[in-house]
Amino acid sequence: MITGPAGVGKSTIVREVVRRTGAMLSVSVTTRAPRAGEVNGRDYHFIDRPAFDKLVSAGELLEWAQVFAQCYGTPAQPVHQALQAGRTVILEIDVQGGLQVAKLMPQAKYVLILPPDYKELRRRLAGRGTETPEALENRFAKAPQEIETAADSGVYKCQVVNDELERTIAQVCEVVTKE
Questions:
Q1: In this structure, are strands 158-161 and 111-114 parallel, antiparallel, or unpaired?
Q2: Residues near 167 by Cβ (< 8 Å), separated by ≥ 6?
Q3: CA angle, residues 45, 4, 36, in degrees to nearest 5
Q4: How far apart are CA 73 and CA 31, in angstroms?
Q5: How far apart are the C-alpha atoms of 128 and 28, rounded to whole Å?
Q6: CATH assignment of 2-177, given 3.40.50.300, 3.30.70.270, 3.30.559.10, 3.30.70.920?
Q7: The pTM is what?
Q8: Are 32 and 42 contacting, i.e. CB atoms less than 8 angstroms apart?
Q9: Residues pairing with 29 in the sheet
Q10: What is the rounded CA–CA span in Å between residue 30 and residue 160?
Q11: pLDDT per residue of the chain (179 residues) written in tens, 0 to 9
């Protein structure tokens, strides 16, 4: 489980950890529209709200949440199948989703990615160019609460500051491959 606030670098880190370790990335479902360059089935499964609600009602998601007016969730079946086949599975989700999964899978490893500081987090969020100014401010304002909730939960035993990307990737790879 890899978690952190928006803009901390989770996607960049996870892509490289998956490439280096051979772990499987769980592809989440979302009701939001694809961003430039995102591919359905690779980055997310992009679905409409009625389809999302149907997954929730059927109990087919390990976790789900509404975040900034959009819904996100982790389909349970592909995760369970991969784990039964002996694969390492990485979930890249938000703090509230991570805490939901921790109730079902306490044996999993939980990694919290932290920004070096909030000034840098704001710079990274703005640099993505994917949000309106209002959405950027909402995401930035939520970050301290997300970090505090994760840190205080006792679930995220491993916390990595993403101040130097290569070192951060190496640390997360070590967690993923260590058993």
A1: parallel
A2: none
A3: 40
A4: 9
A5: 20
A6: 3.40.50.300
A7: 0.89
A8: no
A9: 45, 73
A10: 26
A11: 999 998 899 999 999 999 999 999 999 999 999 988 899 999 999 999 999 999 999 999 999 998 878 999 999 999 999 999 999 999 999 888 999 999 999 999 999 999 999 999 999 988 887 778 888 888 899 999 999 999 999 999 999 999 999 999 999 999 999 96
CB 22 within 8 A of CB 66: no
The DSSP bridge pattern shows strands 111-114 and 2-3 to be parallel
Residue 86 amino acid letter: G
Compute and round to an integer the Cα radius of gyration of the chain. Answer: 16
3-state secondary structure of 103: helix
**What is the spatial distance between Cα 143 and Cα 39, in angstroms, rounded to a whole number?**
26
